[in-house]
Design goal:
Blueprint: E1 5-6, H1 8-11, E2 23-26, E3 29-32, E4 43-44, E5 47-48, E6 72-76
Parallel strand pairs: 1-6
Antiparallel strand pairs: 2-3, 3-6, 4-5
Domain Cytochrome b5 heme-binding: 6-77
Pfam families: Cyt-b5
Protein name: Cytochrome b5 heme-binding domain-containing protein
């Protein structure tokens, strides 16, 4: 896992808008969604990059099965 630590306020800067990268946190791990096609523009099925989606992912059709394929950029600290 990458060593970078993000607070929730720092994570919010990575919303995939205006040239920003698109990061999401799930279970304390921050993933880079920037080059994931369905996340183009920082949005995917009503979810917005720059947020902790730990409560949302259990309701997604793919659940956590996609996570091992995603680049990890750091961890979320609270």
């Amino acid at each position: 896992m990458a060593d970078k630590e993000f607070t929730l306020d720092e994570l919010k800067q990575f919303d995939g808008q205006n040239g920003n990268k698109a990061y999401v946190a799930i279970d304390g791990v921050v993933y880079d969604m920037t080059n994931v096609g369905p996340w183009e523009g920082g949005k995917h099925h009503g979810n917005v990059a720059g947020n902790d989606l730990s409560e949302v992912i259990p309701h997604a059709p793919h659940k956590k099965s996609v996570l091992p394929k995603l680049p990890v950029v750091g961890k979320l600290i609270k």
